[in-house]
Amino acid sequence: MIRYLTAGESHGIACSTIIEGVPSGICVQKKDIEMDLIRRQAGYCRGWRQAVEKNELHVTAGVHNAMTTGAPINIMIYNTEGVHNPVWRNAIGAYPEEIENSDVTYDEAVNEKFRSVFIPGHADLPGIIKYRHECNNLRFVSDRASARETITRVTVGTIAKQFLAEFGISVLSYVTQMGNAKMEGNRDVKISDGIIEKVKFIDNQIINNFRATCKLIEERSLTIFDVPTKTQSENRKQIINILNENLAKLSDCEKVKCPNEAAAKAMVAEIDEARKEGDTVGGVIKIVAANLPPGLGSYVHCDKRLGSKIASSILGIPAVKGVEFGKGFDVANMRGSELHDPITMNGEDFFQRKTNNAGGLEGGMTNSEPLIVNVAIKPISMISKKAIQTVDIKTGEETAKTSGERADVSAIPSATVIGESIVAIEIANAIIEKFGGDQIDEIKENFKNYISYVTEFYKNIKSKKA
Fold first, then answer.
1. How many whole angstroms from its chain centre is CA 136?
2. What's the confidence (pLDDT) of residue 239?
3. CATH number of 3-451
4. 364 compared with 235, residue with greater pLDDT
5. In what order do the strands lie in the sheet with 170-178?
6. CA distance 128 to 397
7. What Rg value do the Cα atoms of the chain yield, rounded?
8. Is the pLDDT of residue 244 over 80?
9. What are phi and psi of 369, to 5 degrees?
10. Where do the H-state alpha helices sit in 282-411?
């Protein structure tokens, strides 16, 4: 089974993960991990900092010559701002006294980044009580609770997707709702090939655009720290101009990662309105896993059900508030006769369903239909302008101060790749649990034998009909 632990803070030097249980013989391309990290980082509703806070990826163990060895994999992702910015290194670094040639003292850095106002919706209040940070600096809570930690889960998910590709299984994701703007039929459970191809195209355009933006910023030597010739505000203005110019080249679908043109246009308008008001918006993402064999997961214990594993892991993503499979909450409005998916003998190799309202899961197991997961994500709690009543832990006074720390309007398009990664990890574990083996060819042989059995089982029943 694939297990992993992550470490790292939002503004720290690096985030890291150790991944255990990945079979040997899987081709892991560094560029594929980097592309997924870009997909998570880029987006129309992300702030300007995303283009300058680069992820430097280092795979230091468990992979040799792009192939997994079966040993634990260690991945380090350095944050260029955390590495180079002496303020952050002093403010939250493990051993600030080791920082040399810094014109920022420890006290100056801590005072600059000290945060004492609880942010409603964030982990600040329960976190500071639970871990008893005596200095009352909420930074020690928020920097770990921040969603940046999910970059490590994305790297695990990329490896899981490369493992699943060996079995012809693919996982993709897209946005179906942003605020009040939503796709028509956003709970659709029949996913067309056209939608799948369009989502893949959108992802490629997002990656290419982000790379072009970063290249322009590098060529003009623009950064948000250590700039001797220009002020940070001057650099920031130029970076924002480059970002806006390149974002303008994307279609509305690409800006918000939604394959429907009309819905995407409404989503962009929703983001523009929220940005103008200094507010944030939530939304819904859809995750689709295709070409799954029947029987992954189990009904024999609640913790073995694939649906419970996926739901639990997805709810571990910061800001996620709801998970649905197939028709989800709509099932409450349906009669059993219209909800449950009719089984037919129309397939060549296996049973077919006329509908997929179950979202590919029955009794905690896959039934060979595409797995459909809808995920509801709340608006970002860090709001740039609109104030929410809260309390300052330093003074004990009630206040209506805003966080004022970020310019992200939403992280919904970025959340697609995080949810996609989580689903891929759980499906990969279900494959390993079902078919066993420590090396990819061994697992594939077991998988092949099972598919032969499944096909023979179906054909035996079909022959009775004949």
1. 30
2. 83
3. 3.60.150.10
4. 364
5. 181-182, 170-178, 283-290, 371-377, 320-325
6. 17
7. 24
8. yes
9. -75, 160
10. 306-315, 336-339
